[in-house]
Amino acid sequence: MDKTLIGLTAVTVAGYAICAWTRPELAAEGWHEAMEMLMQAVPWILVSMFAAGLIAQLFDPAAIALWLGPKSGVIGITLAAFLGLVGTGSRFAVYPLAAGLLAADAAPGAVFAFVTSWQLVSLSRLPAELPFFGIRYTALKTAVSLLMAIAGGIAFQGLWGHWQRFR
Q1: DSSP H or E stretch at residue 65
Q2: In angstroms, rounded to a whole number, what is the distance separating the alpha carbons of residues 71 and 157?
Q3: Angle between the 108-120 and 91-103 helix axes, to the nearest 10 degrees?
Q4: How far apart are alpha carbons 157 and 150 in whole angstroms?
Q5: 3-state secondary structure of 6
Q6: 142 CA to centre of own chain
Q7: Is the pLDDT of residue 53 over 90?
């Protein structure tokens, strides 16, 4: 099991134990809130895992490596950022898809650009932004966010190579 997960579990259990001892009503409210979030998340997580598994089988890893792999360079990172723009759904859908891309030999920088552009822009959110911010602000925000995702992907890819040497 992952050491980070074990540590986070220990801290959470300790936090609940302390709250249960000192403020039982707070621990009960926290537990109730956690169960509500779990019930909302479980269907998304299950469907997303099955969808990511299917997508991993449908897409040829060689094609992903060609278009988004380490040898695709800035073009692959840019393509991944544009793919992130059309990403819809929750993080429970996008993160398994991104993990599937990594497993299929997509470059880490491309996956970074994909997830970042999805988080910052996502075309499905633009109709909600336009009435509040107007076309000028929304267009500039979208362009700058896309550039940030691409620049971040390039930086991430470069740092990833250095990071791998220290493992």
Answers
A1: helix 61-68
A2: 11
A3: 160
A4: 11
A5: helix
A6: 18
A7: no
Which pTM was predicted?
0.71
Find all residues with CB under 8 Å of 89, minimum gap 6, and list them.
48
- Residue 121 has what DSSP assignment? T
Question: pLDDT category, 1, cuts 50, 70, 90?
Answer: low
pLDDT tens for residues 75-128?
999 999 998 888 766 676 788 788 888 888 899 999 999 999 999 987 878 888
One-letter amino acid of 2: D
pLDDT value, residue 52: 67
Question: What is the Cα 97 distance to its own chain's centre?
Answer: 9
Asked if 68 and 101 touch (Cβ cutoff 8 Å), the reply is yes
Q: Give the single-character DSSP code of 89.
A: S
Q: Which among 53, 119, 134 is positioned nearest to 88, based on CA atoms?
A: 119
